[in-house]
Amino acid sequence: MRTVVTKFGGTSMADADKFRQVAHIIREDPDRRYVVVSAPGKRFKGDFKITDMFYLCYEKAEAGENIDVLFDEISGRYNAIIDELGLNISLDREFQRIRNGMYNMTGRDYAASRGEYLNAKILAAYLHYDFIDAREVIFFNNDGTFNAEYTNDVLSARLKRHERAVFPGFYGAMPNGTIKTFSRGGSDITGSIVARAAGAELYENWTDVSGFLMADPRIVDDPKIIKTITYRELRELSYMGATVLHEDAIFPVQIAGIPINIKNTDRPQDRGTMIVADTPEYDTKNVITGIAGRKGFTAINISKDLMNVEVGFGRRVLGILEKKKISFEHLPSGIDTMSVIVKNSELSGKLDYVLNGIQQEACPDSVSVEDGIALIAVVGRAMVKSKGTAAKVFKAIAEADVNVKMIDQGSDELNIIIGIDEEDFEKTIRAIYAEFIRG
Ligand code: ASP
Q1: 49 close to ligand 1 (CB < 6 Angstrom)
Q2: DSSP 3-state of 398
Q3: Rounded distance between C-alpha atoms, residue 195 and residue 136, angstroms
Q4: What letter does residue 341 receive in the DSSP assignment?
Q5: Which atom of ligand 1 is closest in space to residue 181's alpha carbon?
Q6: Which atom from ligand 1 is nearest to the alpha carbon of 10?
Q7: In the list 25, 177, 191, 415, which could disulfide-bond 379, CB 3.0-4.6 Å?
Q8: pLDDT-derived band of residue 352, with 50, 70 and 90 as boundaries?
Q9: What structural domains does the chain harbor?
């Protein structure tokens, strides 16, 4: 028997109708043996995600406020799902335990994780699958990092005892047994971890869109869906702001070479996006796979005559950043100039220290700071095989009358990164997209 791991996101699990649709999808293919779920998401515009309600509940309890109304709303949503599905189970004892947990300060992560925990219990009962609590099989180290190998050992041994199971996503256990969550959207990571441990043939990630889009639909009208993308391309796009899949979800399946298929719960007939280790397939006409970007960067521009022959100059500059634990994004340089591009959030409250440090340790001729920078990544595995991609990118930018502040191309020729003014961000993305896709 093949093994397919499926993960359903919050919007796919928001109410009883969605549960029915999810169960229908799972039953359609007997290979869909392990299922990972998020907490119920928004049912309509303006609705609240259960995870956010749990966070709020915890904050209220921490502030000594009464949480009864809010908690009843949460339990009401689960009970509505149970009733509408006609299930013969009660989660009342669980609700009681969790409500007490809020007051006993069992932790913010514990509170948030209950959204997934309760949802997985209901789906397991509905499907007649086993329920496996993530706290028994997913582990973190004391420093809060994910303990990948130990988890993989324990989880793969455990899976041998369960032919079919439902897991709550998003959380695991610290060495002392307390609950810890991944960052928001972390159920995607759980799905990937289960796929690796199960040695799955495929990891299906079911969501509310029919795959990864070539550009942000809030910026570009009706962007095309990416049919196939490699893990590395996806990592570039996710890092630069493309959402849909949590950026850390790639690593566990990448180790095992398991493809991910992004699928739409409301349109299961759509092919979705396949994320694979490598593929010879690419669009010869369009060359690029996707465009993504982020605002909120600062450039520290440093110049010094004869910088090119001064051994250790770069190390001295970067040493200052290291001392303050600041990570940098890019390091474009000229003969006598060097710029360090850093996220604003990394620099906040540390800029004076950095500038003084650079003055003292590197003795430059000048240092200037430019904020309000946006970075755009044009990503495509086919770039390495084709000529003229950069020319097309910069032609589009020039025609849009945008001034380029920085250019960087990774050594693997997988992407071209462009730094521009934040105010030109949307227009630049639209211009590049139009040049490749509609040009
Ligand atoms: N429920 C969590 C969140 O809202 C995790 C997830 O959905 O993946 O972030």
Answers
A1: yes
A2: helix
A3: 17
A4: E
A5: 5
A6: 7
A7: 415
A8: very high
A9: 4-274 (3.40.1160.10), 290-438 (3.30.2130.10)
